[in-house]
Each structure stands twice: as structure tokens, then as C-alpha cells.
Amino acid sequence: MRMTIRLMLLPILAPLLGCAGGDRVVPAGVPGGPFVRVLGIAQDAGVPHTACYGACCEAARSDPGRAHLVSCVALVVPRQDGHDTYLFDATPDLTEQLVMLRDVRRPPSGRTDRRPVSGIFLTHAHLGHYLGLAWLGFESIHARGVPVHATPRMAAFLRDNGPWSQLVSLQNIDLHELSDEVAVPLPGGVRVTAHRVPHRDEFSDTVAFRVAGPSRTILFMPDTEPWDRWSPRFDALLEGVDLLLVDGTFYSGDELPGRRVSSIGHPLMVDTIERLGPAVRDGTLRVEFIHLNHSNPALDPAGPQRAAVRGAGFDVAAEGRDYPL
Ligand SMILES: [Zn+2]
Ligand SMILES: [Zn+2]
């Protein structure tokens, strides 16, 4: 393992009183209900980053506690006979991220789990967000019909381009097309809704996912343009959201020497803190940053930038952290 998995805020799984029938879901809203677990917080290329020998990545090489898997969250829905698990994005760290669900997924012992998740929701076709699908293919576990939810453009990209097309033709994955702003109902009273967001859309469009449970709603938005390139719809998107897991690629505009951060196209953490500060301070919204670039100084848990994030009432997400829904 590249990192130590720390389970925080893990819901206590209560005895499943009142459940009958092998397929019945735990009643909504009780302890032991659905939750979201963070499986990775790094930008697409991870931490340590490919071929980076700067202080940020050397620190992560010498201290596994400073290493981070690529941005990903899982939805876990308890059932009487186990749990349904859904991934939001399929990252190059998929192999390790599946192990982080082992306590709830209860995989078959002694053999390969060829249906390792109940489904996957994809945000877009950039490397950190879909390359993990390859690990479902013939050269790996030769998965059996894992449902993959994607926008029509993203689904067409997978269907029409190798090697992804082989996952479809061999039925390793089963594509389900998402409609913008139409909820997908899941067990446990959970509803997942895709919302288009502005981003560099070379191969697919890009969405954020609203995950609404019986008690709380989480918006997962790992990649988007800076806020000044959004229309006012962003504020509407936050309506009813309790926790925003948001693009924290860069902390501020000066963190990449010799490169203009503004040209890469992400909201700066300092700008997000300014924009959403009032809602965070009055307690109507919690915001945690995800998808941090290896250069982001807020990755250092002892650094002044992390202290500033926390001081403003925000936080950096952490692998293994669970949020009850
Ligand atoms: Zn990304
Ligand atoms: Zn991207």
C-alpha cells in the first residue's frame, strides 16, 4: 500500500433490525445507512507525481503518509447480505482503491472478484478519471458486466475507441447513458444526478455528481473551470447540498514556477474560500477540497496553507474518511 488507510467518522454499522429478505436494504436514515468514502484526493497523476523530483514528491516517497491516491470517492449502501458499492471515477489507482472497500464489500475469499463494484459513475475522459476501467478488462480481471454510467458523449468515446471498445464488446462493462440533471435511483433511497460543468472537454463532456441520501446530499466536483468562467448556475447547483467535495487542484496562482496557473483552468483554493466563505461560516455548507495537484502546498498537513484552509472553516478531504448520507 502506498499509504496508510485511516478510517475517520466511520458510521457504526448497527444490527440490521427489521430487515427481512436477502435483498432488502437497511431502512433509510438509521445508523448503518448509506455513506460516501473518500478513496483518493490527488490530481490525475497522483502524489508522488510522475517524474517529479521536487520537495513535494520526494517527501511523499520517503513518507508513505504523504502519498495520495488519485481523486475518487465511493458510495456504500448497506444491505442485509453485504453492501452495494459504487465508484465515482475509475482511476489509475483502482486496484488499491478496491482494497479500501474490502471491509464493506466482503469480496469472495480465495478467488478473483469479477464484479468488484455494483457500478461506476464517470465524470469525464481525462486520465485520472477513467483509465482505471482498463483494470476491468481481459488482461486484468475480465470483469462481468460492471455497470458504467456516463454521459452520451463519454459513452460514445468508450464505445468507439480502443482499447475501451473491447471492454464493451467483451461485456466487461455495461454502459448506461446519463441524462443531464436526471436522477438515477439507487438502493437505500440514494439518488445520483449528473450536472454538466465547464472544463476542458477534448474527448468528452464533464459532469459533477450530486449524491442525495436519506439525510444528506454531497456534490462531487473534482474538475471544473475557475469560478469566473461559470455562469450563475453554480450557486443554483449548491442548493440543498450539505457537503461539497470540490476541485482543489491549485492553492494559489503562484505555485507552478514558470507556468501560469490561470492558463490551466481550475478554481484556486483561495478563490473558493473567498467565494463560499459566507455559506461555510454560517454553517449551511461544508466544503472539502479534493483533486489536489502535487504542487499544492495545502497537501502538507503541517503547512501554513493547510492551517489557513482549516482556519477558514474548510478542509482538505482525506482518504478513508466517511460521510454518512
Ligand atoms: Zn482531473
Ligand atoms: Zn480533467
Put the structure in a nutshell.
The chain is of the alpha/beta class and 325 residues long.
Could you explain how this protein is built, in words?
The protein is an alpha/beta fold. The chain has a single domain, classed as 4-Layer Sandwich (Metallo-beta-lactamase, Chain A), CATH 3.60.15.10. It contains nine helices and 14 strands. The strands form two sheets. It has a seven-stranded mixed β-sheet. The protein has a seven-stranded mixed β-sheet with strand order 7-8-9-10-11-12-13. Bound molecules: zinc ion (2 copies). The site of one zinc ion has 8 residues, from helix 4. One zinc ion binds next to loops.
Key attributes of the depicted protein:
seven-stranded mixed beta sheet; 325 residues; 19% helix; globular; 9 helices; disordered N terminus; alpha/beta; Metallo-beta-lactamase, Chain A; binds zinc ion
Q: Supply the CATH class.
A: Alpha Beta
Report the β-strand fraction as a percent range: 15-25%
Helix share, percent: 10-25%
Number of strands: 14
Please work out how many helical segments DSSP would assign: 9
What would CATH call the architecture?
4-Layer Sandwich
Helix/strand structural class: alpha/beta
Low-pLDDT stretches are 1-30
What's the structural blueprint in terms of helices and strands?
Layout lengths: L34 E6 L14 H8 L9 E8 L2 E7 L5 H6 L2 H4 L13 E3 L5 H4 L15 E5 L1 H9 L3 H6 L3 E5 L6 E2 L5 E6 L10 E6 L4 E5 L11 H5 L5 E5 L21 H13 L4 E5 L13 H8 L3 E2 L5 E3 L1
Parallel strand pairs: 3-4, 4-5, 5-6, 10-11, 11-12, 12-13
Antiparallel strand pairs: 1-2, 1-14, 2-3, 7-8, 8-9, 9-10
